[in-house]
């Protein structure tokens, strides 16, 4: 469809397509990397405490309660933290505020598929840098002149982690543009690059409460970086939406950072389940990329991936497939509860017999 009323930019957009959120209950939903466990009870209490007359008032436009919680957790200044309505919104502001230059932005050929969409929306040129044959990001391939570099760490949808020394090496070699490290999955076994922020004014780290803190439904993301980078994001945000986080999100998010024990327990359980599921899949003949995230990217040499995903769906299990060169024979499987992972393996055993 198109219309003469559309702007040229809208006519040319190729929007991101999120994973399915099925209306049916009882599906084993392993397709959008949500946490299989609920948020901390303290988050629910905090949100319940905010339900009342105060909802008639606008929230704090800069979400100071939550920003301070993030700043304290990472040992940075309040002025080094930016909040958004999910890290997707934070990323959108980053593309508009910091990546619009003469040179193209660099990101991997296999990566978060929202990056090229933001480039389309904000008219940012980009260049895809191929991952190595082992699906790893090779930092030495990012030294050409550029208008910024962005990748998730661990990368998505491969799940493969880049070490902190590799990121620091790239920061040393690339001082003329911003490096954005999208740490949506860092809490499942990686080491955050926030510790480098004080030394590299061109480093911006983004994170989300959607995955490791079980709050995809609340929509909270943040960025940590040099005050000048944060100020650029504030300028865009205050030209777009003064109140990106609701009152419920601000108190719920702050409570999530206050419950460190619950957070650690959930992350450790997901990591244990990941290793069990990876060995289970390998013993069924799957090739599984080494993941440091809450999902696995895996391929079954004897079955077509689209076909296998369709068979799984018939059995009530949904996983994600990307129609994309190099990974079209892979499935991305979110780590579920112990029972969900068991069920996936049981169903696969049945399907592979046929
Ligand atoms: C899930 C995800 C996001 C977005 O998270 P939200 O905070 O829910 O918007 C950003 N980057 C990557 C790589 C993700 O997988």
Report what the structure shows.
By secondary structure, this protein is α/β, with parallel strands linked by helices. It has two domains: 20-38 and 261-353, Aspartate Aminotransferase, domain 1, CATH 3.90.1150; 41-258, Aspartate Aminotransferase, domain 2 (3-Layer(aba) Sandwich). Helices cover 37% and strands 13% of the residues. It contains eleven helices and twelve strands. A five-stranded mixed β-sheet has the order 2-8-7-6-5, sandwiched between helices. Helix 2 (41-50) runs antiparallel to helix 8 (247-258), helix 3 (64-74) packs parallel to helix 8 (247-258) and helix 4 (87-98) packs across helix 7 (227-237). It is globular. The structure holds pyridoxal-5'-phosphate. The site of pyridoxal-5'-phosphate (PLP) has 13 residues, from helix 4.
Short précis:
This protein is of the alpha/beta class and 354 residues long. The protein is 37% helix and 13% strand.
């Amino acid at each position: 469809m198109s219309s003469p009323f559309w702007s040229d930019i809208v006519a040319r957009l190729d929007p991101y397509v999120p994973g399915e959120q099925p209306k049916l209950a009882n599906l084993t939903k392993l397709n959008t990397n949500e946490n299989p466990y609920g948020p901390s009870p303290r988050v629910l209490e905090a949100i319940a405490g905010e339900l009342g007359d105060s909802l008639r008032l606008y929230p704090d436009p800069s979400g100071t309660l939550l920003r301070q919680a993030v700043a304290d957790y990472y040992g940075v200044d309040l002025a080094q933290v930016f909040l958004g309505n999910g890290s997707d919104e934070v990323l959108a502001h980053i593309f508009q505020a910091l990546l619009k230059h003469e040179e193209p932005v660099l990101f991997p050929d296999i990566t978060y598929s929202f990056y090229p969409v933001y480039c389309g929306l904000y008219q940012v040129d980009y260049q895809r840098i191929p991952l190595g044959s082992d699906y790893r990001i090779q930092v030495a391939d990012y030294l050409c002149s550029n208008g910024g570099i962005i990748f998730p760490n661990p990368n998505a949808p491969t799940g493969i982690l880049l070490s902190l020394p590799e990121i620091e090496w790239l920061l040393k070699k690339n001082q003329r543009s911003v490096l954005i490290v999208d740490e949506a999955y860092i809490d499942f076994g990686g080491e955050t690059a926030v510790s480098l922020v004080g030394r590299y004014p061109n480093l911006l780290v983004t994170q989300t409460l959607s995955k490791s803190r079980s709050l995809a439904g609340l929509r909270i993301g943040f960025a940590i970086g040099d005050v000048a980078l944060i100020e650029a994001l504030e300028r865009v945000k205050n030209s777009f939406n003064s109140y990106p986080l609701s009152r419920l999100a601000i108190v719920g998010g702050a409570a999530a950072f206050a419950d460190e024990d619950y957070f650690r327990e959930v992350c450790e359980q997901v990591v244990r389940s990941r290793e069990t599921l990876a060995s289970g899949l390998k013993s069924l003949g799957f090739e599984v990329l080494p993941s440091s995230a809450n999902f696995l990217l895996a391929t079954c040499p004897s079955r077509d991936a689209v076909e296998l995903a369709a068979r799984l769906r018939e059995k009530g299990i949904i996983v994600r497939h990307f129609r994309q060169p190099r990974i079209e024979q892979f499935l991305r499987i979110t780590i579920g509860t112990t029972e969900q992972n068991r069920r996936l393996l049981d169903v696969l055993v049945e399907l592979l017999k046929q």
